[in-house]
Amino acid sequence: MKYNEGQSKRQGVSRMAYLMGIDLGTSSVKVMIMDEQGRCLALAAEGYDIQLPRPGFAEQSPELLWESACKSIRQAFAGCRVRGDEIAAVGLTGQMHGLVTLNGRGETVRPAIIWNDQRSERQVRKIRGTAVEEHACNPASTGFWLPSLLWMQEEEPELYDQIRHILLPKDYIRFRLTGEIATDPSDASGTLLYHMEKRAWDEETARRYHVPMEFFPPCRESMQIVGEVTKKAEEETGILAGTPVICGGGDGPMQLAGNGVIHPGQLVTNIGTASQVDCIGSRIYPDDRFRLNTFCHVQPERWITMGAGLNGGIVLKWLKKEIFREIPDYETMPEMAAKAPAGADGLVFLPFLCGERSPYMDATAKGIFFGLKLIHTKEHMIRACMESVVYSFLDCMKVFEELGIPMDDRIIASGGGAKSGFWLQMQADILQKEIYTTKGVEEACRGAAVCAGVGCGVYGSLEEGCGTVVRLEDKVYEPSAAPRAAYMENFELYRKIYQNNKVLF
User: pTM for this structure?
Assistant: First the structure.
């Protein structure tokens, strides 16, 4: 559906193969302009806050997100010599799961309820154990579309009655750019309202929970062009009216594309604030215990099995901010951890400071230091915390093995944790796989730009685009057998500590 009129077509414009990728994150929107060889010509970011009107609530103003995107786009243009009429296509990605609601005039009904919102725990309990999870191939979680919509039905009926369209956050930016309502399978598969095997909206679930099918946006493939920049959006962003805009994808899948991870068996670990380990499959690998997440990839006929952890870099942030305040910076922490031996002399940390998702799906889980002795120092504690994040990867990969998911012998590491060579070597030693990293920055932006290039014909396929743009760093972290025994002893303790204490959480 289109609300904005007056689109002007590009006519007679000399166009170079410059591509734009927009990543609408939780705390900032980033915009990258790159050439067809993958060289980043400009990178701009505009930050914003999460609104926390009540305990457990997490919201953002869609209008603020759009204004921030406009500022970031203009900053990107100001940072390079590329003009708005030289962008061949625009790609979009962003935070997944969040609920943006529109009325019949295309206006937002309320602030977006985003992925880390916890208000719908009661609604989640109603959904768990039903066919919803089986159809979605995902465990019911707060912050997903369906629980948030059910919360609105019960708590804000007057606002719910105004809804005519629902969007995911990055789709709202495309709506403001083009006037088109749409989403893609990678983002739709994180809503609990998408039937993974049918690859379509789940009519049975929608009917069961009284969600009108008219709410749902058309679902297009990620690299498909779904609209053009309007004249009004040109005035706000500087991108020429008529510039094609692709459907795009969720930030997790798009970050994988930006790392060149599009083939079955490829693995990625990501340590940001949270942490994830992903494996690409040529089919869905259902888990009847719902310990993992499954999403459509931006590459058609590919699926992502994800072990989603809530505790990554935030563990070190907590340790530095609240415990070891005298440590000058985060870069110092791996240097200190390296002074303690592998396995931290038997000290094990359970990192569940924010509860945990994969593989336990336990919002009540807590953090624990286990095995403390007089010999242990702050160096041991930092190392134990870093090791625990990698143990969570291994915990999820054990489930991958159990489900029969083929896995390569190497891993692409990404996120802020990939800046630490010490942490990368730890991943190699604990996971017993070669660890690689890619050159460049902002993989999700890069993935969105590559997908835009496929959509407008700069690249013949996603394989060609990734092959052209994605480059590996020369350094490879090889697994060492020497610390293996200490790590595996602690890993088994790690799992037992959770199992023996979960009734106390």
Answer: 0.92
